[in-house]
Specification:
Keywords: NAD, Oxidoreductase. One of its GO terms (molecular function) is mannitol-1-phosphate 5-dehydrogenase activity. It catalyses: D-mannitol 1-phosphate + NAD(+) = beta-D-fructose 6-phosphate + NADH + H(+). With 384 residues, the protein is an alpha/beta fold. It folds into 2 domains: 200 residues, NAD(P)-binding Rossmann-like Domain (Rossmann fold, 3-Layer(aba) Sandwich); 177 residues, N-(1-d-carboxylethyl)-l-norvaline Dehydrogenase, domain 2 (Orthogonal Bundle). 53% of the residues lie in helices and 15% in strands. Strand 3 and strand 4 form a beta hairpin. The chain is globular, with a radius of gyration of 21 Å. The structure holds nicotinamide-adenine-dinucleotide (NAD) and D-Mannitol-1-phosphate. Nicotinamide-adenine-dinucleotide binds next to helix 1, strand 2, helix 4 and strand 9.
Length: 384
């Protein structure tokens, strides 16, 4: 299997690339970071440090890396069997340009072999978004070929992988938690489903994507923003604070009740899932900085993302939502001069006031009652 993976970052090297290589794929990374591409090509391997109750170091070898903007990537798309991405939701549209060019070459050459594309990003239906962006760039005459030969497969991806920079010495080594989960939509593949150990198939993907994004990521982001307000540096420090842990657990329960009602998850099992996640946040072997988890607050305040979507669910079902409201208020307080979206958010608040800024980021009506609740909490947090 010829696999091309866009994004040789934390999750690319530490999770998806590793699973593909372990399953015997001929793996090529494509990345926009020239230095990283050079380092990968020089070493042709990297180490993955798996930390949990037990620890081990695995080596991923026989890999190749390409500059994401190079013609070699277009060639590679023309012959690939599987293409995956882990670049961040905001970068998918750029990948779509490259994918459309590679697919055009593939179709012009008459390659009608099945190809599957899986975006492994923290977003609901990320691959469907990528497909729409590719179609918008591909000449109409090739749309039927794309529908017939190319599977765009949505997925949910879960493994906590902090930046490689946390490791001393080896710039390519990644440290990952032992837990991992990659769930893909069985019905969206074209041709034979690739055999990748650790890739699970489901007929109910949306439920699993929302379960992951609106439990783990909802709890993670609230830990980050409350932790930042309290002056902590890492997620472990923040979640070890009993007051923060209580609020994070409450927020995950509020969001969880929406998931239980919407998808029929077993309530007790879901509560156990929440407790397991709280344990993962406290992993003593991971140094996961609040700055990473809190990154891009405007994305995180989006209507479809981990804060606002669960909140809207609680309103839909008439459920309690005080902890989610406090988490959103903490997001509005988030300051980080090194994060352009945090700077932009604070600029909006300074210029137009907090209600307008929240409405602009989230799509909530500025005069909605829940916006009033969030603003009240925001003011309390700012004073406290
Ligand atoms: N790290 C985690 O714990 C984790 C877990 C699950 C899901 N995710 C998701 O995985 C995705 C990647 O996250 P990450 O933590 O690995 O980020 P990262 O910043 O470590 O990696 C992203 C990589 O993409 C590369 N990149 C940027 N623009 C590119 C382009 N145009 N073409 C090719 N490569 C490009 C960057 O150079 C970088 O190496 C995000 O959507 C994130 O939400 C992350
Ligand atoms: O990657 P983001 O910015 O969407 O979210 C930050 C973290 O919550 C996230 O990367 C988690 O570590 C990951 O989703 C765990 O599976």
């Amino acid at each position: 299997m010829k696999a091309l993976h866009f994004g040789a970052g934390n999750i690319g090297r530490g999770f998806i690339g590793k699973l593909l290589a372990d399953s015997g794929a001929e793996l090529t990374f494509a990345d926009a970071n020239h230095q990283l591409v050079d380092q990968l090509n020089h070493a042709q391997q990297y180490r993955v440090h798996v930390v949990g109750v037990d620890q081990r170091i695995d080596t991923v070898s026989n890999i190749l890396a390409l500059d994401a903007g190079s013609e070699d990537v277009i060639e590679r798309i023309a012959v690939a069997d599987l293409i995956t991405t882990a670049v961040g939701p905001n970068v998918l549209d750029r990948i779509a340009d490259t994918l459309a060019r590679g697919l055009l070459l593939r179709f012009e050459r008459g390659n009608a072999a099945p190809l599957n594309v899986i975006a492994c990003e923290n977003m609901v239906r990320g691959t469907a978004h990528l497909k729409a962006a590719v179609l918008a760039r591909l000449p109409h005459g090739y749309h039927a070929a794309l529908e017939q030969c190319v599977g765009f497969v949505d997925s949910a991806v879960d493994r906590i992988v902090p930046p490689a920079a946390a490791n001393d010495g080896d710039p390519l080594e990644v440290t990952v938690e032992s837990f991992s989960e990659w769930i893909v939509d069985r019905g969206q593949f074209r041709g034979d489903i690739p055999q990748v150990d650790g890739m699970e198939l489901t007929d109910n993907l949306l439920a699993f994507v929302e379960r992951k994004l609106f439990t783990l990521n909802t709890g993670h982001i609230i830990t980050a923003y409350l932790g930042s307000l309290a002056g902590y540096r890492t997620i472990r420090e923040a979640i070890s604070d009993p007051a923060i842990r209580l609020k994070v657990r409450q927020a995950m329960h509020e969001s969880g009740e929406v998931l239980v009602r919407r998808y029929g998850f077993d309530r007790q099992l879901h509560h156990a899932y929440i407790e397991k996640i709280l344990g993962r946040f406290a992993n003593p072997h991971l140094v996961d900085e609040i700055e990473r988890v809190g990154r891009q607050p405007l994305r995180k305040l989006g209507a479809e993302d981990r804060l606002i979507k669960p909140l809207l669910g609680t309103l839909e079902y008439g459920l309690p939502h005080a902890a989610l409201v406090e988490g959103i208020a903490a997001a509005l307080c988030y300051q980080n001069a090194a994060d352009p979206q945090a700077v932009e958010l604070q600029g909006w608040i300074a210029q137009d006031g907090v209600s307008q800024a929240l409405s602009r980021a989230s799509g909530l009506a500025v005069d909605a009652a829940v916006v009033g609740e969030i603003v009240e909490h925001y003011q309390a947090l700012r004073q406290g």
